[in-house]
Fold this protein.
Amino acid sequence: MKLPFHAIFSRLEKRIIIFLKGFLLCCQVMAVTCSPPQNMSYDGFEYVTRSGEDTYQDKIRSSCHAPYYEIAPSMGSGQPLPGTFTSSAHSIWKDREGRGKIPQCLPVCGQPSTPINWDQGATGVSKAKPGNFPWQALTVIYGRGGGALLGDHWILTAAHTIYPKDSFSQKNRTVNVFLGHTDVEEIIRLGTHSVQRVIVHPDYRPEEPNNFEGDIALLELENSVPLSPDILPICLPDNETLYGDGLMGYVSGFGMENGRLASQLKYVRLPIAKREDCEAWLQKKNRTEVFSPNMFCAGDRTLKQDACQGDSGGIFAVWDNTTERWMATGIVSWGIGCSKGYGFYTKVLNYMDWIKAIIEGDS
């Protein structure tokens, strides 16, 4: 007996529907798999659902390792992205607003766990306490130098610590970077952080002994450093108000003091000097060093305090009242003796496009 055509079609349709329901259920349970969330730092995310296998409709809640990291603001709004993400049928993690990008955790900069005491009458060199300058790096290349941590895997320093002005020193040397302590023996005992890339500004000319133009460099660490109260980054400047005449800043380092290399991290509080005063001082001494707009000077001729040999590459740190964070406005570059007048610093603000191009290009 032959079934009518419409009956055959009805049975076939039912079988197809049953098959499709089973197929979709299977896909929801096990076939659709999302890639694990990327670019999350430390306490990056946790599963809200039980699965935890990155399958369809799994939920995760993003978080950052506070207080050392914070969620990056969303594009345009300036506000953090919503923290809960769901795995979609297209193998993409989406937030509550349907956006398919997991936020990054960015290192918090310029907020030391143990800020220095603001003693307005303090003069001379002081011994730093743990946590005062957690961005401070000790570098050992051709000799002792300094630097500052940016983010969690970059070091800002001076180009002349890598390529000195001495022609006889132009050999390849190992770049050693140490972080995390105020005592020289202890910071070295903690071990060096391997450097995978050295980037020197193209304007730097090691063959010109009296020209420190472009005296800035970046060291990319091979691995991100675990942030802690003793290892925290400093912020980068974004406006000219951080360079006003008389504005006080702090220079820290492991350099020379009283003719000897320091065994402890020291710091000195210095005012930004008037440019015309520094130019007149150089002329009086018949100096031929280039003092360009990409540099500034700091110090007080009436006080015997300054950075010195071994402090090169360290930073001039200024407190920004607007953001309530410390900013790396300058890099210890050059001077005429120690504690005999003014010190000269690379003006970091003038090199921000170069810095951002390198660091953001990496990310």
